[in-house]
Design a protein that fits this description.
Helix content: 40-55%
Structural class: alpha+beta
Distance between the termini: 82 Å
Largest sheet: 6 strands, antiparallel
Strand content: 15-25%
Shape: extended
Radius of gyration: 37 Å
Length: 665
């Protein structure tokens, strides 16, 4: 809002753009200072700890699912039958019984199949505009989103978070903006967030998470990283290092490398590594009465610190100044203001002792926290993953395998029965057994009147239906998981028609459709938030050529002035970058070329053939040279050699005719 200080300032102003609220700057305090704000921060941390503790059951179930997925399938605790009140793992119990804790990990293969289905059907986020005339601008935004995806290696991040989705039912990523040293540029930044480090109000019931009021993350990092993020000068650095003065100033050596122990045994306030600093990022949804003011003199629409009475006084002063200048009252630019209750996201970065390193309202134009989160299925508040549905079948299969192994190991296998009076003089039973098993062994003995000879017994182990039970459990595992032989790519039985097998594969994919659709919805929500960050922070023009020939050249140049006030949305469509799709496009283009509906240049601009760019450039260069000489363009001989290898001769003949070349005799 503009304060009037001169009469001339009332003239020549119009409404233009909307503004943003200002951020609060919080000075760092010394470690010895204990204030009401520190006490309030400690109360906030304690509330966050309670929320984190309320998610303990979710984390324990996720840990169990991860162990079964990893192959650690005998680590469940059971009561020790020999020591009442004490608990041991199932693996320890089996070893005490003389059994080998065998397992046949079927869970891993099923999850890998789901990940394979996801990777084989890539999806692509496309920006759409509310108005038809903004089509080129949305193409530019689509290209910018794909470029940011390329920088962050999002296909790999999404594959790993899809794996987490199958384990726990939670998808959590963090979206921000940072400087990439290796690329020497600032860009959108996306990272996966471990569910062990996240906390939020656990009374959620809306699958869209519209009832989310608090969300935060436990961060363990080095003091240098904290100084780099929050210190504005050397004085701030000194205060930050005082806050974390108790850390070990050396590289921490641990016996648990590439191991989940740190995450499995997390404490809320204290990090496992003594050289790491614990930091809490806490986002809360607050609300207060705000005064919105629209001032036509400078075109702003902001939240202001003035009261409605003060704004009314400003308008009264403007009217008085305007009347002195002879300006009609209806033409005097007056401030339009209203007071309303607004909810907003507020962030604090706190140390474990309640000291605040930064606080302020969300700096993002999407006016939310930086996390993209989806919880599945959130049925009556419960969240679980795909793995949890099939653990019981996996346990029963392992149990049957051990029973079969125990029966086979306990059955008689070549037991030798020797009458004592048959053993020759001067030979022990061990000598007799060695000679019995030796190749071409000879044993001489004197027959006895009873006529009994040594006898070797081999008993067939009785399966008592174990094979049938294992087959039953394997079938139940497929039925419960919804991943049948057809969708796994296994060979069908003899005599199965191809159409029936294809139909079985199609129907089998319906069982996993809910997982895929949920993840597609998450990507749409994530990419919309990411796109808003791009529009906010891409302040300069930049060249973003990652989509190849799929867009025009103008859309490869990102222009912030074009998209700043654009009203857009994001949809996730089926991916077009698959071998089947490329083959279909190439065949269609070839038919159009054969029918002379397009020329060779249009064909090469849109085809995915590996030599298309080089050939197109050569044709255009030759065409320019021949036109200057008054001749006809042609194709260089070295490129013809590349084209003719593995290419349809008839199609190439048509391509030659299209550019005016004669067939070789």
């Amino acid at each position: 809002m503009k304060i009037i200080t001169a009469k001339e300032e009332l003239k020549g102003f119009t409404n233009s753009t909307l503004g943003m609220r200002k951020q609060k700057v919080v000075p760092l305090i010394d470690v010895s200072e204990i204030s009401d704000e520190v006490n309030a921060n400690m109360q906030l941390l304690e509330d966050c700890r309670r929320y984190w503790d309320s998610l303990r059951d979710f984390r324990n179930r996720r840990l169990r699912n991860r162990k079964y997925y990893r192959g650690d399938q005998w680590s469940d605790q059971i009561e020790d039958p020999d020591n009442e009140g004490e608990y041991i793992t199932e693996e320890t119990y089996l070893k005490e019984q003389g059994k080998v804790p065998l397992k046949q990990n079927q869970i891993r293969q099923l999850v890998k199949n789901l990940i394979g289905q996801y990777r084989s059907n890539p999806s692509k986020s496309i920006v759409i505009a509310r108005a038809r005339e903004d089509a080129q601008a949305t193409e530019m935004l689509t290209n910018a989103l794909q470029a940011a995806s390329y920088v962050n290696i999002l296909p790999e991040l999404d594959a790993r978070v899809f794996e987490e989705f199958n384990l726990s039912g939670a998808i959590i990523q963090k979206i921000g903006y940072k400087y990439f040293k290796e690329r020497n540029l600032e860009d959108l930044y996306v990272e996966n967030t471990n569910p062990n480090r996240i906390f939020f109000n656990s009374d959620l019931s809306d699958i869209r998470l519209n009832d989310l009021r608090l969300i935060g993350e436990i961060i363990d990092t080095t003091v240098d990283n904290i100084v780099s993020s929050f210190a504005k000068h050397k004085g701030d650095e000194e205060k930050i290092r005082q806050l974390y003065a108790g850390l070990v100033d050396r590289t921490y050596l641990s016996d648990h490398g590439l191991d989940p122990t740190r995450l499995d045994n997390m404490d809320f306030y204290n990090p496992r590594d003594s050289n790491k600093a614990r930091l809490f990022e806490i986002w809360t949804l607050k609300g207060e009465w705000r005064v919105y003011a629209h001032d036509p003199m400078d075109g702003t629409y902001n939240i202001v610190d003035y009261t409605l009475k003060e704004i009314a006084a400003q308008n009264k002063e403007r009217i008085a100044i305007g009347e002195e200048q002879g300006i009609p009252q209806e033409e005097i630019p007056l401030i339009e203001a209203e007071e309303k209750f607004e909810q907003f996201w507020y962030v604090k970065f706190l140390t474990p002792f309640g000291h605040c390193l930064y606080e302020g309202e969300t700096p993002y134009k999407h006016e939310e926290h930086p996390y993209a989160i989806t919880l599945y299925p959130l049925l009556d508040g419960e969240v679980w993953g795909f793995v949890e549905d099939i653990i019981d079948q996996q346990r029963y299969i392992n149990r049957l395998i051990i029973q079969m192994d125990f029966i086979m190991s306990a059955s008689a296998k070549g037991v030798l029965l020797i009458p004592e009076d048959v053993i020759p003089d001067g030979m022990t039973p061990d000598d007799f057994a060695k000679e019995w098993t030796r190749f071409n062994g000879i044993i001489t003995y004197t027959p006895k009147p009873h006529g009994k000879m040594p006898e070797q017994i081999s008993a067939n182990s009785t399966g008592i239906g174990l094979n049938e039970m294992i087959a039953l459990q394997m079938n139940l595992l497929q039925n419960i998981s919804g991943i049948h032989d057809a969708i796994q790519g296994k060979s069908p039985s003899s005599g199965t028609p191809s159409s029936l097998y294809a139909q079985e594969a199609q129907y089998a994919s319906l069982n996993t459709l809910d997982y895929m659709s949920t993840f597609r919805y998450y990507k749409q929500k994530r990419d919309l938030k990411a796109l808003k960050v791009i529009v906010q922070y891409y302040n300069d023009k930049r060249y973003l050529s990652v989509n190849g020939r799929s867009i025009n050249e103008d859309s490869k140049i990102y222009d912030p002035d074009i998209v700043r006030d654009l009203d857009f949305d994001v949809v996730v469509s089926q991916g077009m970058d698959t071998p089947v799709y490329r083959q279909l496009i190439d065949e269609t283009l070839m038919k159009l070329l054969e029918g002379q509906m397009i020329d060779i240049e249009m064909f090469l601009e849109h085809t995915s053939l590996p030599f298309a760019d080089k050939l197109l450039s050569a044709i255009r260069q030759r065409k320019e040279a021949m036109m200057q000489e008054g001749g006809m363009p042609g194709i260089p001989e070295d490129l013809l050699a590349q084209i003719n290898q593995g290419t349809n001769p008839q199609a190439m003949e048509m391509a030659k005719q299209a550019i005016g070349m004669k067939s070789a005799a």
